[in-house]
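Recap from last week: sequence in, structure out.
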Amino acid sequence: MSGKPGQLRIESLRSRLKRREGELQEEIRQALLRSDSEQYAQIADQVHDLEDESFADLMVDVNLAEIDRDLEELRAVEAALRRISDGSYGTCAGCGRTIDEERLEAVPFVSRCIDCQTIFERTHFQRLGHTL
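Predicted structure tokens:
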């Protein structure tokens, strides 16, 4: 296990985070454009029975779930960039220990070490439950 990443590694991770931030912003923009498009209006106009209506509702729900997922990741990426700026990047928000470099490499926007993340998921999953 290696420790907190060095400055060169942090700059590489910052670059990855900035790139991902741009990708997510574009994905959200495209999803919002799709949700406003005539596609859904056309589907609604063509709805003739409950099956068609259910399908149209499902398409809208899936699109909104994609936007929610992307927004959640975008917030995490932006928070990681703030941690890089303020010097706290790589420090666990739960216990204050150093997050392993391998973990940061795998998911650069994590804010907890693996132990604290495991505890967080166990204690928060019951309240949140499954989401689409």
